[in-house]
Amino acid sequence: MGPVMKFRSLSAVVVFLAGALSALAGTVNILPLKPKEGQIVTIEYKPDAPEEGWIRESSSIHATLFGFSEEAEAPNAIDVRLSKNGSGVWTGTTELTKGIVFTLVKVGNGLIYDTNKGIYWSFLTYGANGSPVRNANLKAAYSCFGMLPTYCRRKEDMQEAVDYLQNEVKQHPRTITARVNLAMLQKALGEKDEKEVEGELREIIRSTPNPATPMEALAISQAYMGVGDQDQSFLVQRNAALRFPRSKVDEQMALQKLSESPNAQSFISKVSSHLEDYPNTFAKQNLLDMVVTTAGQQRDVTLLIPFAKRIKDLPASVCHSIANYLGAVDSLRPEALALVERGLVAAKDQSLRPVYAGPAEWNEEQRMVSSQLLYVKGAILRAMGQKKEALAALEKSIDVGARETDKGTYEAYVKLLQESGEGKKAVGVAETAIRNGAATAGLYQSYREMRRADGKDSASIEKDLAALRVNARRMASTKLAKDMLNQTGIAGTFTTPEGAPVNIGDWKGKVVIIDYWATWCGPCRSSFPAVQKLYERYRSNPNVVFAIVNVWERDKDRQKIVKDFLSKNTNLTFPVYLDATDAVVGKFGVTGIPTKFYLGKDGRIQFKEVGYLPEEQFLEEATNKIEALLDQELP
């Protein structure tokens, strides 16, 4: 079931833009220890015991290197193939490209990556004098902010960022961007008081009347903001935008104007123009996603048709999102099918790969998107009464998706096989789905019906299901390691119904399930019986915390509303909290309820669920997630 949506203004959506896996941990060595431009760099990877399994199942292993240059906002990703030597160490070599000042490294097979428990491995580029080149430590500091693309988003570590910035300022004192960021960060961390930082920022502003680069201009603009002079901050950006057309500072000004859109149609039109003016923008995927979300929230998916026609290099994932929306409207199905075909072509177009995505990982993603596109195609063709063509599309979706096939594809295929009189084949497909951990409640129901029709009794069917689920849990744990979001934890305080404060940070070291809900939300209430069963499953485990958090109530006396609800539902014994001012739920970026977040022991957000699933499916998937997080070790 879908969530109850809370709509946001376009300006609120654009503010997000303007601001804008793993538990594995082997060992990586980079040689030489102080690599220079043009040198051959050797990557050595020795997996720990837990990694041996996924490596054995991999046809090839590679290191993905994310190289940061001085001015480019996004890193450039390359894959370096690794080969196993007689000592069990995987090695590969590559030349350190000119202009790269800092590099992040992870090792994997396209689907699963060892990211050193989210920290990644890294190295600076050194100059002839034996010291890091200019901006090497600055880019390293940026990598610690937790703001990079998901492909290379390392854990946030502000203290390490301070260390890098201090090194940059010490070795290259004229690096304005590093000086501004260091001052602002030390203030935020309480290492320096406001007056001291203001003095430093004013000195930087005084000594830099004419920023030499777009990045320097943004830093000086930030410095003016730091001393409370918003007008001058704007003037610096505006003048720099005129001096450096089509630069990052110019684009920042253009992005801010998106918030001035009076309606959805205007916003989508402005985004189209922005993508034409800045075809290589770092914000491209965010902008595309926001257009689809905006049209969905306005319940006018027809806005997406001219948008899709105007954007020539539409990624396969966005073709899928738009086709999914259009396919639900009878009269728009031809346009949806055309977008499916366009997406299948885009998935093979290497020119659409973002520079910050490693080739192997991007190719695997495109394979999975292709499977999802074929699923949408099958669903549309089935709705149009073209069963034969629908069966072919769904079968191909499963073939392309392999173990990563969407659960809905299996359910739709099994039901269509049943309708087509191919019961024996349907049973086989259903068993494959269950073994692969890809069964939905609907598929379980179909499987039980088919087995009963074959003369099996309920006890035998459940025994067979239990045997199939053993492999499903093993498959799920591998998939979940890949699906972990690894997003920075969010600070905040909830209160109990009695008013006692509870800080999210106090739960660090435990697996935490946060479920946002409201008393008026029908889907939230409908999900509670399953949530209660999940809670009962883990209530005696001291390492698992449940926080069912009330938000968005429409009455001022929230405590009374929640207490009245609980008094009428005494069967619900899970811990309930209140987000009294809705401040925390806003930080989590929630737009619809119910929405659940699963936090790992380190406090990072690893899984997110929007809406609610049928009980059997929810309990199975939630249990797999919790068990995967319980198995994680803290770094």
From TrEMBL:
Please provide one cellular component term from the Gene Ontology annotations of this protein. cell envelope
Keywords tagged on the record = Cytochrome c-type biogenesis, Redox-active center, Signal
Main subcellular localisation: other
Q: What CDD domains does this protein map onto?
A: TlpA_like_family (cd02966)
Q: Does the keyword Membrane apply?
A: no
GO biological process, alphabetically ordered: cytochrome complex assembly; response to stress
Q: Which SUPFAM superfamilies match?
A: Thioredoxin-like (SSF52833), TPR-like (SSF48452)
Signal sequence coordinates: 1-25
InterPro entries, per database record: Redoxin, Thioredoxin-like_sf, Thioredoxin_CS, Thioredoxin_domain, Thioredoxin_ResA/DsbE_sf, TPR-like_helical_dom_sf
Q: Which GO terms describe its molecular function?
A: oxidoreductase activity
Where does this protein reside within or beyond the cell?
Cell envelope
Residue stretches making up the Thioredoxin domain: 483-631
- State the source organism's domain of life: Bacteria
Q: What is this protein called?
A: Thioredoxin domain-containing protein
Protein's organism: Candidatus Kapaibacterium thiocyanatum
